[in-house]
Amino acid sequence: MATPADEIRVDARWLEPPEPMEQVLHALALLQPGQHIRLLLHREPFPLYSILDSRGYRHDTAPQTDGSYVILISPAQDEPPAA
Amino acid sequence: MSMQTGLSFEQAPPFAQPLRFFLTAPLFLLAAAGLIMLAPAALASRWTLPALALTHALTLGFLAMAMLGALLQMLPVVAGAALPASRGVARFTHFFLAAGTVVLMTGFLGADARALTAAMFLLGCGFAVFLAATAIGLRRAVASATVTGMRLAVISLGLTLLLGMALASMRTGGWTPAKDEIFIAAHVVFGLLGWVLLLVIGVAYQVVPMFQITPPYPPRLMRWLAGTILALLLLHAIAPLLPAATEITLVAESGLAAGVLVFALVTLRLQSRRRRKLPDVTLDFWRVGMASLIASAAVWLLARLWPAWAGSDAYPLLLGVLFIGGFAVSVVCGMLYKIVPFLAWFHLQAQLQARAGSIPTMKDMIAERGKRWQFRLHLGTCMLLIAVPFWPKLLAVPAGTGLALSAVLLEFNLLSAVRRFSRYGGRFS
Questions:
Q1: What pTM did the predictor assign?
Q2: Do residues B43 and B392 make contact, with C-beta atoms less than 8 angstroms apart?
Q3: What ipTM score was computed for the predicted complex, to two decimals?
């Protein structure tokens, strides 16, 4: 799947905790205005949500048919990205 | 928080709270090594005074120390069960457990009734405060198989404590029941198969799938195993008072051996089906632990088939070495290598609101080589300890030396994570 320019794609499926969170925090540091993060994960990252909230990011979680999750992350003041 | 919702970190206690337990535990492993080297009688028969001191250095000083620290951390995070006055409980329990264990060891070594009485007081106070706080916390916990395992383990810890106090009061001349061996057997079995095994089982349900990226444990196993084991432990404890005591004891022990085997085999099978086959020292510690559980069950079975072996001095010692050293110490070492780096990383990023790259990753917290060397030393020591009951004079010093080196390296490795945490500006409380 091609990654659009306004998206940073983080595929953290089957990585050991806390590597998925480390990768998301890394991606947040790289995020440019207007960009969002598309996080792919094998389980729902509940601990991440409170960290995103406290740092001013919104998240939108979509469970996938294969049991994994896609989480779109963007700055809270931006329009939510189209899933 | 249920199993599905995972971990809740807003509830996490300050780093200092569990850390003081984790950094004290290896010191008792070192004390156990000293006993093996200086008092070879410790591994010649389970009934010698050095053997009792050694056993309690391992079970109270190392295992309970690390496990209480881990429970203080995990109850709020995994079970959503905040403990009342957790700071005070952690400080109080840590001090009384450490001091009580030292005084108990002194009491055994010197056959000193006054020290045993003091140890009863110290350990009784320490565990009573911990058990009361945990009982309140666990009442608030959201139900899951992990929480059930923790509840049953904590009940077993309470029973182990009461039986231990009864045994200590017999030694200090308080009272002499007709059959003290019933109390001894129940104390040992509730301590090892109740408190230690049930806690490991409950924690495994959560950490094996999450950290080793395996499929989940079978739901039916999670529903039944821990409760069945506790029921069998109760049956085993009261069996001597029942008619057909021998047969009932055998049934209870067979059931327990089967439960041990099922847990070990299912865990090994799940670990062989993990998603990423990368080397991981914690996984290797778990595998040694599960193999030791299987070996314990085999040694027990051999004793049922061969009564001369059951009556030997070596049999209970070998069972103890396999279960305590091979299983419990291995799993606890493996878990410490996850918990301490995880907490160091977690608190650092939470305190500093750190941008990625500006703090070490969890994997950088303890050098891989140091952990790997400690694993090798631990494995070699376990091999030697298995042989010590047969050749105590020849092997006690090499086994004790191996254990001492392993304990020192474990402490050094844990401290390296703490040093990194503090160098990057982490606050402990």
A1: 0.94
A2: yes
A3: 0.80
